Amino acid sequence: MAKQTPMTKAASQRIQSTTAKNGGNTSKGSFPARAQSTADSKSSKGSK
């Protein structure tokens, strides 16, 4: 099994930026949106 790396805010920003620059879909439900949501939820759990 491949090593899993946790989603960070920086990684989600890179994904969203690259997708947008290449004319991709960044709307609700897209991979970049899900990545950002995951990073946000992991970030809020870590700060409590």
Which short descriptors sum up this protein?
globular, SMP domain-containing protein
Walk me through what this model shows.
Residues 1-48 are annotated as: Disordered. This is SMP domain-containing protein. It comes from Aliarcobacter butzleri. With 48 residues, this protein is mainly α. The protein is built from 2 helices and no strands. It has helices spanning 9-21, 31-46. The longest helix has 16 residues, at 31-46.
Gist?
With 48 residues, this protein is mainly alpha-helical. The chain has helices at 9-21, 31-46. This is SMP domain-containing protein.
Largest sheet: none
Counting DSSP H or I runs of 4 or more residues, the number of helices is 2
* Averaged pLDDT: 86
Strand content: under 5%
**What is the N-to-C order of secondary-structure elements (H for helix, E for strand)?**
HH
Using only C-alpha atoms, the radius of gyration works out to 12 Å
Number of strands: 0
Principal-axis shape equals globular
Low-confidence stretches: none
Calculate the terminal CA-CA distance, rounded to whole Å.
31 Å
Please estimate the helix content. Answer: 55-70%
Structural class: mainly alpha
Question: Can you lay out the helices and strands and say which pair or pack?
Answer:
Blueprint: H1 9-21, H2 31-46
Region (Disordered): 1-48
Organism: Aliarcobacter butzleri
Protein name: SMP domain-containing protein
